[in-house]
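$ ./design --mode recover --in tokens.txt
reading tokens...
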């Protein structure tokens, strides 16, 4: 499962898309794309589904700030590995908005980790922070 915070412009992050492709190449059974921005989730989902037609994929629009929703999604999909990509694309802008960066990078990731502990059978969680302040 990929849990991604879309970039500020709503576009899919290239690194997240590349990570999804690599997971597919390594014979992932299923990838669930989850994020708050429907454009970025749709972009990644379409890219991977087109390249790997036999791979089971799901696109879920949800905000990782909503702990109940994340619990529900993780309980429903029950993935073995969860990859959390927390990022902000425009570092100078985010330096003057550090509260939002902290919310996305720390508190949202905490929600995902707590949901994994409580509801999921995930064996591991990988976290990638890009441009952390």
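writing sequence...
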């Amino acid at each position: 499962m990929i849990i991604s915070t879309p970039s500020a412009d709503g576009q899919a992050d290239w690194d997240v898309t590349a990570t999804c492709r690599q997971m597919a190449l390594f014979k992932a059974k299923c990838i669930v794309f989850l994020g708050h921005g429907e454009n970025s989730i749709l972009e990644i989902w379409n890219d991977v589904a087109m390249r790997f037609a036999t791979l089971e994929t799901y696109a879920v629009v949800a905000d990782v700030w909503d702990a109940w929703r994340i619990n529900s999604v993780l309980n429903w999909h029950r993935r073995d590995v969860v990859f959390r990509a927390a990022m902000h694309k425009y570092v100078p802008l985010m330096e003057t908005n550090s509260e939002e960066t902290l919310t996305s990078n720390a508190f949202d990731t905490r929600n995902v980790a707590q949901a994994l502990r409580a509801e999921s059978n995930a064996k591991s969680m990988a976290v990638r922070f890009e441009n952390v302040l």
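exit 0
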